[in-house]
Amino acid sequence: MARIDMVARSDDLGSSISANQAIDRVTRAGFIKNVSVMAPGPHVEAAAKLLAGRQDLCFGMHTTLNAEWDKVKWGPVIPLDETSGLVDAKGYFLSNPSMFASTKPAVEAIMREVAAQLEKLHTLGFAIQYLDSHMFPEMVIPGLDEAMEDFAKKKGLIDHMYFYNLPPGFQDFSGGLPAMTEALKTLPNGQYFFVTHPSLDTEEMRMTGNAEVRGEEVAKARAYETEVFSTPELVPMLAAMSCQGVRYDQAIPQQRAKVEAFKQMSGYEQES
Predict the structure, then answer these.
(1) What pTM does this model have?
(2) CA geometry: angle at 126 spanning 124 and 128, to 5°?
(3) What stretch of H or E contains 105?
(4) Could you read off the pLDDT of 23-77 as tens digits, one per residue?
(5) Dihedral pair phi/psi, residue 50, rounded to 5°
């Protein structure tokens, strides 16, 4: 173990061509070794052709029950209608997990969709090794966290909830490598986790956005993450500070995170 092990993850593979290309780029730089795949993503088949054969990567299922953007949407793998509480009248996933408080989807129906998403990724050739969650609907749906934990155990998947030791300061990438270096100097020895959302600043990504953030801002911020984590200087710089990226299947499970902690961080309890 290095002085600092980072379980560094890139999310949203399959959500766009821009994300696919950016994740390919940052993972080839060598620090980020974990990639979370969205089975309902409109470009997941292209993602499989590009990356599924990469033996150097640890792939996970980014369990997807929401589609947060106003113009860019996706829906479930299995047929669902509005009565399920998971989709709108057009068959797309709801934009925010908070909406589940009123639609009240059944955990049993959700888990059928979760199982179908995993089967789809296996069919596409992804060797899924861990399970995580897009937008944490577990915060809103009673019993979903327990069901996801049980599903991971039955399927022999690593449960992401055992790895949420967030490094203070390091999660803010806006200062680039210099700021990351300074944040690392203050970290005690140990294992940490952080997540990135690499993409390219393209017209495709500028089509994203919602009431909280404009698509242009999404595209710019995620393209900057791509730049930071694909730079050739990154791995040597971190290695000089005894910091290395590790896969989930190399990492040490810690105490399982509590859903209540994510509610507090997101402000959901205050909103509800």
Answers:
(1) 0.95
(2) 135
(3) none
(4) 999 999 999 999 999 999 999 999 999 999 999 999 999 999 999 999 999 999 9
(5) -80, -40
